[in-house]
Specification:
With 218 residues, the chain is α/β, with parallel strands linked by helices. The chain contains 8 helices and 12 strands. Helix 6 crosses helix 8. It is elongated, with a radius of gyration of 19 Å.
Length: 218
């Protein structure tokens, strides 16, 4: 599962992309103008950005200056002439799709870019915390943080299911395996430790009478 930022000012197109991404198992954040997109890019990390060129406030070409090199970008635009395509690719875009487009083609290109860049699940960052899901190294403000095995496994589950509410029972089964019969209060204790170690007191939300949710966009 990848988390994708959709920057497209036409709401019908934005909604269509988001709906189809959800159907194939991805999550997305939808924004509609350039300055709003800039704030999201500065404050969060994404597996991929789908970026329109003609945007209110700040255009897609200008936004490319603020996209970290490790985040792939697919330009999505009605500007189909060769010079615009060349400019977009020279700025660092990984692909370029011209409107109107077939949804199946867009999804295929998204999967191709994610496979090629191999970044959809390897690195997750939120505020000052960076989690390398391949090496299992966690840093806060550049300093490595020591987590117990259970703390890390709980963290990884929250990241992979970000923005999804998970019950205590579900978290207990996933992090402590299905043969664990302990109390769900164990989850609460570990959540409190993660919040403190990662400075995520306002990121790991308590879902009333259910469990917890890691919020990556606000």
């Amino acid at each position: 599962m990848a988390h994708i930022l959709i920057v497209e000012d036409e709401q019908s197109i934005n909604d269509l992309i988001a709906m189809n991404l959800e159907l194939v198992g991805h999550t997305s954040t939808q924004v509609y103008e350039g300055n709003e997109a800039l704030e999201f890019i500065k404050q969060n990390t994404y597996s991929l950005i789908i970026l329109d060129i003609m945007l209110p406030e700040l255009d897609g070409f200008s936004l490319m200056e603020y996209v970290p090199e490790n985040i792939p970008v697919i330009f999505l635009t009605a500007m189909g002439n060769l010079s615009d395509r060349v400019k977009g690719l020279k700025l660092g875009a990984d692909d370029y799709i011209v409107k109107p487009f077939e949804t199946i083609e867009l999804l295929a290109r998204i999967e191709a870019v994610l496979r090629r860049t191999q970044r959809s699940l390897n690195i997750f960052s939120l505020d000052s915390t960076v989690v390398n899901l391949e090496s299992r190294v966690v840093t806060v403000n550049g300093d490595e943080i020591e987590l117990t095995l259970r703390e890390y496994e709980l963290l990884e589950i929250l990241i992979k299911n970000r923005n999804i509410a998970l019950s205590r029972e579900k978290l207990l089964k996933l992090a402590w395996e299905y043969d664990y019969f302990g109390e769900t209060r164990t989850v609460d204790v570990h959540i409190q430790k993660l919040r403190k170690k990662l400075n995520w007191e306002n990121k790991i939300k308590t879902v009333y009478k259910m469990g917890y949710r890691l919020e990556v966009d606000q």
